[in-house]
Amino acid sequence: LPxxxxxxxxxxxxxxxxxxxxxxxxxxxxxGREVVRVDVSLDGGRTWRVAQLAGERAPPGRAWAWTLWExxxxxx
Length: 76
Description:
The chain contains no helices and six strands. It is mainly beta. It has a four-stranded antiparallel beta sheet, with no helix packed on it. The mean pLDDT is 87.
């Protein structure tokens, strides 16, 4: 299956103050395959950043759960 992901923080429509912003979410790849990378774009796909994956790595073929991720970025 294609990787599916959702952003959980900040919430849709949230006002983001200048400074540092932590974007959080979860991803799932299906078929027992682990998520090995999550790329996040904050500018409509012009540029991408690699998020940090949280938690322990599952053994091959045993990645049946969602993988949490987060990315901290500066906001102007």
